[in-house]
TrEMBL record:
<dbReference type="GO" id="GO:0019843">
    <property type="term" value="F:rRNA binding"/>
</dbReference>
<dbReference type="GO" id="GO:0005737">
    <property type="term" value="C:cytoplasm"/>
</dbReference>
<keyword id="KW-0255">Endonuclease</keyword>
<keyword id="KW-0820">tRNA-binding</keyword>
<dbReference type="Pfam" id="PF20833">
    <property type="entry name" value="RNase_E_G_Thio"/>
</dbReference>
<dbReference type="GO" id="GO:0006364">
    <property type="term" value="P:rRNA processing"/>
</dbReference>
<keyword id="KW-0479">Metal-binding</keyword>
<dbReference type="GO" id="GO:0008033">
    <property type="term" value="P:tRNA processing"/>
</dbReference>
<keyword id="KW-0694">RNA-binding</keyword>
<dbReference type="InterPro" id="IPR003029">
    <property type="entry name" value="S1_domain"/>
</dbReference>
<dbReference type="GO" id="GO:0046872">
    <property type="term" value="F:metal ion binding"/>
</dbReference>
<dbReference type="GO" id="GO:0004540">
    <property type="term" value="F:RNA nuclease activity"/>
</dbReference>
<keyword id="KW-0460">Magnesium</keyword>
<comment type="similarity">
    <text>Belongs to the RNase E/G family. RNase G subfamily.</text>
</comment>
<keyword id="KW-0819">tRNA processing</keyword>
<dbReference type="Pfam" id="PF10150">
    <property type="entry name" value="RNase_E_G"/>
</dbReference>
<dbReference type="InterPro" id="IPR048583">
    <property type="entry name" value="RNase_E_G_thioredoxin-like"/>
</dbReference>
Amino acid sequence: MSAELLVNVTPSETRVALIENGVLQEVHVEREARRGLVGNIYLGKVIRVLPGMQAAFIDINLDKAAFLHASDINSKLITAKNGNENDQVPDIRTLVHEGQYLMVQVVKDPLGTKGARLTTDLTIASRYLVLMPGAHHAGISQRIEDVNERNRLKGIVSDYCDDQHGFIVRTAAEGADEPDLKHDAEFLRRVWEKIQERKQRKVVKTALYQDLSLAFRVIRDVVGISLERIRIDSKLSFDQLADFTREFVPELTSVLEYYPGERPIFDLFDAEREIQRALHRKIELKSGGSLIIDQTEAMTTIDINTGAYVGHRNLEETIFSTNIEATQAIARQLRLRNLGGIIIIDFIDMNSEEHKHRVLHSLEQAMSKDKVKFSVHGFSSLGLVEMTRKRTRESLEHVLCSECSVCSGRGNLKTVETVCFEILREIVRVNRAYDADKFIVYASSQVSEFLVNDEYHNLAELEVFIGKLIKVQTEPMYNQEQFDVIMM
């Protein structure tokens, strides 16, 4: 499978696109004013302890207080309180108290109305290793399956561990030489020493440690994909990434390429247009069917429709073929939109159990290319497929869009007719409550025209009913749902 990265850099924003076989599969966006927080380490202050939720709110100098659950508090501390790691997590009040300072790390960015999620089990990642301060053992990524390689790596990395420094061997370390692993371990130890120094100075207004910026992070973490090229449209960023790869990811230095072309880099492979399509609710399938994707705070729902596709033999074949095609599209859209949490898929109803099994298998196969952890739970009693996908950062929609100021996120508007009837009822209500000589209605052009033309008789009857003049005026700045009833 051919793959390449496109890196688009401007002073205010960096975007990275992963292209596989000529098709956009993932897009990452980071804005300088709103850099992601996952991986950042802070010296936070406990501002509130909530025993009923087994949690505490921590001030790390963000707009919203961050959230720390008892189960995310350092396992050593819990063990010390309990004497047994397998015991139930103790009362949050025995672990932290208000006013206490804690070194914490962000594991989930703020999402919607929720603050960042924290842990006190700190980790610092490099290319091949993850440092676990306070631990003393070596762990190996589950994705490294070869037993001999696992034993080789554990033997090497165990020598770097002591009472205060443990390491996890990342998937990218498979086949890595001992000098490279040692270099990573020494680098991580130096980073941890710097963090400790900043902690002693009680640096509380800024992060004690901040993870790499987007382009560097993506290149550091890319694994399992053979990249043919990494194209960067900024000469400064290209030079910085070249230095970074030479030190940390030397096998990628040769594929780095500065892109000076006049054509915008995200116009290559139609990436810009694909990003715009990923913001649409409806996704067309090649067969004529479609996906309808609705993202809410609680979950994401995906509905599959056959559309104009009628198949060549019978209805069951049509349904099965559409559902199989949909599995590929769903897997791609989940990666492209970075949708996480609970996902409910409403495939078109199938009578055949074999067809259901094959659709599930196709979905799992398509999702296997996704490096984000997921779980498919099969068909429910209602015929819905339930699945989860780990969510650590905001979706593409939340990064690029904001709530509609007109519909307040509902996704629909009251009809002109509905607004007109609301206006007529409001006039009656105000007339009963206050003494006025006449009324002036300010409304959008669509509503005012409908009132004066289509609802003329109702307006005239209301004037007779209340015995007062009603004047309608257009307010060009009003949206369809806005209106004012003014007493004169």
